[in-house]
Amino acid sequence: MQLNVQPGLLASDKAAEAEAIVGACVHCGFCTSTCPTYLQNGDELDSPRGRIYLIKEMLASGSAGPTTQQHLDRCLTCRNCETTCPSGVQYHDLLAIGRETVDALVPNRRRKIKRALVRTLLLARRPLAWATGLARSLSGLLPVATQRLLGPAPLFADAFEQRTGARVLIQAGCVQPHLRPDTDNALSHLLAQFGVAVEWVHGCCGALSAHTSAEQQARELARANLQQWRDAAARGDIVAIVSTASGCGLQLAEYEALLGQQLTAEDRELIGKVCDPVTVIAQLHAQQPDVLPDLANAEPIAFHCPCSLQHGLGLSDAVQRLLTDLGASLPTITDSHLCCGSAGSYSIFEPAMARSLRDQKLGHLQQSLPATLLTANIGCQMHLQGGTVTPVEHWLVWLARHTFLPIEE
After folding, report:
1. Distance CA 320, CA 302 (A)
2. Carries keyword Electron transport (predicted)?
């Protein structure tokens, strides 16, 4: 494809980027075979190729309508198409340009307010902490489905935090510490078993803002986190920077693309230390193989690999390899490459499509009748739990539970 962006529509660097991405697409259609929304409704405009056509037409003409906005909104940004694409088209970058442009060309006050409200509510740590705390105190009066979403009582106490010397930084996000506080604590206790210290960094990664066309807010959040990382690095060596939510981890890993020329050499060095917890745990396990337990007698499980982990970070089977190496038995999941429908805030803004994808995913995950479903992202965890009575746990919590509590034979 060839694109000539309408003069004055985009900044010159964005125009050049969009033209290069569109130019890389050979419209082969391989992406349609792995696009969840296209597989659901068969609408070409709900496929990556169709959306590229819509963005190309919009950027060339300088005009767009609600239909274009609707089809771009319906994209999960799961990046499955990028894994499939033989031409290496960076679709998610083009989609971000397309969404920002269509939002400027097609003002939608109600939509804008709804997205701003969701961002405000999820980024407000104190009200969120208060609300979840109140809900837990009244859990006995709440519907069973709501109780499942709140999750069980935390198993692990807050771990000791070390603010000097060599350590791993854990980026505590905006939602997970309140909805599933055990997850970060599970990681910290596992790392302690290997003799690795941790320090918490608090602040939203910016993914929610980036995915709802609030890129300026996403950049501000990124800069605030980088300042915390620099402050931490000044007190001692940072071994790795991790988030236990793979969606947040992907956002952190892409700070260089987000901030570009604003970054210092120190910033780039720190961003280079961002990785998923499974990478850290797997490396430590390879060095100290006797620390983690034998999981051969653990209860049956099934693992859902989030899109951010497999397509974004390129770790499609890292968790499975680690757990299998420890003796756990994991079934092969049908269409494991497809999205569960959570996709960050997608399940809030596109609930019908999200539920359909969730029900399909749960059907595949539960074929082997697992006692527990595992995943690696808080959004996937909450979304899946909303559709099943089977407990959905973060793999780190499950591993920590079997490390520190005996397995019932």
Report:
1. 10
2. yes
